[in-house]
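Handoff note, outgoing to incoming analyst
You'll be picking up this chain. Sequence as last confirmed:
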Amino acid sequence: MFMGRYWLAEYEWAAHKPFALEAGVSNEVIDAIRVGKMPPFARRDEELVFAFLTQLHEQRKVDDALYQELVEEIGEGGVVDLVGIAGYYTLISMTIKVFEVPHPPSVAPELPQESN
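Most recent structure output, in case you need it:
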């Protein structure tokens, strides 16, 4: 969901929101991500993943302390997987945006509109 929100890719957001809910992500966390606020995470691993992805996208790097904290939480292999998944969904989101893939017709748009 992070990538869908970051890129304002409605199709990706709509496709992944049901999976997030099914996986136990709360509506409060989903709504905070949707509006660009810090989510009220109940789990430390979720908070660290969000902080990692946010820092990576905002600064184009991750500081050593955050990297180490995430490695301690999810393991080095988990961090490698996270970066790979983030890259993959960046590609998907970019594709959705470039080719103007609309949100599914059965789902109302939820993300903020882009300003020109």
